[in-house]
Predict the 3D structure of the following.
Amino acid sequence: MWVLKGLALGSAIFLVGTVAFFFIAVLRPVKADTATRLSVLYGVTFANPNFWVALLACLALGVCLLASWPVQIQN
């Protein structure tokens, strides 16, 4: 059960990081009267190998954080 909780924590960390990255890298530098194409979003996410490395790192970080938590997990 702690593995699933760790994966959920890692997913939440990744989601917050992705939203922050979108805001800082894609949406913030765009002028008010312009639009962002879907190809730009695809290019900075699915086509970017760093995106997948960050996903794996966040999932591993979530599992490691929950596994090393000092409070004993009760059944």
In short: The mean pLDDT is 87. The CA atoms of residues 10 and 62 lie 4 Å apart.
